[in-house]
């Protein structure tokens, strides 16, 4: 059995690649710690990081969506020594995979504050920590698409979908995919100092502290089936965003009384009609910001968000960012290459 720490003077970083469907879940944090170790060695600091990406199962094999196989040198059963930082990257939630993960969960149950200084998860890895009981009573973050499911499945976890990562004691959880890089850089800064973390971030052409919040990446409304009251309501409202509207008008379009419409709509969508309309207006404004150079004033007017001040306040409430900052972050990149013909009007 190979030792978990081949370099006893260095901090052992064990990254468990639960699934290879998103390579960045484990390759991103691995690159951060590997480059941090190289930079530390160049500064004659020899107690850096010993990084190992390991498989959760004994076959040590990871199948990827890119039609290539990754063979790890180690699986978790080979790791028996104390660990500095254990990172659970992603989550293989397929039913067929669960029986093969029994030994992994037995191993994970042995990991605690006495033999593992920090335990972390990337993206869906939060579900793995939750299943193991490690997140019981703790604050946690996961991918914005999975936050509601994590909260409903494990109600004793305080789920926050906004930040790129969350710390609760010795347990760290990060949001979706690339946010594992954000978390890894923060851990490097915690271990050493800001200057070293900045140097690694520059090497990777990445922010040390990324602006904004994860919420700005997610859709404010789910996708409804065609006959769902949310979808039927959305279809009508989409053509009247620049108009003032109240619940009476919407109920009339749905051929329902105001009282019955409000009751049914809230039951089926989980929100009152007014909040739904506001989210639709924000989604329409996001699309304009991403795809056009339309002035902010016109966007606010055409989407029914009032003026600039009102639109800014609503964006901050729903997306934790301003319209101007959102446009800078998400406007189409094709314009920078002069590829106008591929941009839908």
From TrEMBL:
It comes from the Bacteria. The keyword Transcription applies. PROSITE patterns: HTH_ARAC_FAMILY_2. GO terms for molecular function: DNA-binding transcription factor activity; sequence-specific DNA binding. Residues 231-329 form the HTH araC/xylS-type domain. Keywords: DNA-binding, Transcription, Transcription regulation. Signal peptide: none annotated. This is Transcriptional regulator GlxA family, contains an amidase domain and an AraC-type DNA-binding HTH domain. It comes from Mucilaginibacter gossypiicola. The lineage of its organism: Bacteria, Pseudomonadati, Bacteroidota, Sphingobacteriia, Sphingobacteriales.
């Amino acid at each position: 059995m190979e030792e978990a720490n081949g370099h006893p003077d260095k901090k052992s970083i064990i990254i468990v690649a639960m699934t290879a469907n998103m390579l960045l879940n484990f390759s991103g944090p691995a690159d951060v710690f590997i480059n941090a170790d190289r930079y530390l060695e160049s500064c004659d600091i020899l107690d850096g990081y010993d990084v190992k990406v390991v498989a959760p199962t004994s076959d040590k094999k990871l199948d990827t969506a890119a039609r290539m196989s990754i063979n790890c040198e180690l699986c978790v059963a080979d790791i028996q020594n104390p660990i500095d930082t254990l990172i659970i990257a992603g989550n293989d939630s397929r039913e067929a995979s669960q029986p093969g993960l029994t030994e992994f969960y037995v191993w994970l149950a042995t990991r605690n504050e006495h033999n593992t200084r920090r335990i972390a998860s990337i993206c869906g890895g939060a579900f793995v920590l939750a299943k193991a009981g490690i997140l019981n009573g703790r604050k946690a973050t996961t991918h914005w698409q999975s936050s509601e499911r994590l909260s409903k499945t494990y109600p004793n976890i305080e789920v926050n979908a906004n930040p790129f990562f969350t710390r609760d004691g010795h347990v760290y959880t990060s949001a979706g995919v690339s946010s594992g890089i954000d978390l890894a850089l923060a851990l490097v800064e915690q271990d050493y100092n800001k200057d070293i973390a900045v140097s690694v971030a520059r090497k990777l052409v990445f922010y040390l502290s990324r602006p904004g919040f994860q919420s700005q990446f997610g859709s404010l409304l789910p996708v409804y089936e065609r006959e769902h009251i949310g979808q039927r309501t959305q279809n009508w409202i989409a053509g009247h965003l620049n108009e003032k509207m109240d619940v009476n008008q919407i109920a009339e379009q749905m051929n329902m009384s105001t009282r019955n419409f409000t009751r049914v709509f809230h039951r089926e969508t989980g929100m009152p009609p007014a909040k739904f309309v506001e989210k639709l207006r924000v989604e329409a404004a996001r699309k304009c910001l991403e795809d056009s150079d339309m002035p902010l004033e016109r966007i606010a007017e055409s989407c029914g968000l009032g003026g600039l001040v009102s639109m800014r306040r609503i964006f901050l409430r729903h997306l934790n960012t301003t319209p101007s900052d959102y446009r800078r972050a998400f406007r189409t990149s094709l314009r920078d290459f002069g590829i106008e013909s591929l941009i839908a009007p």
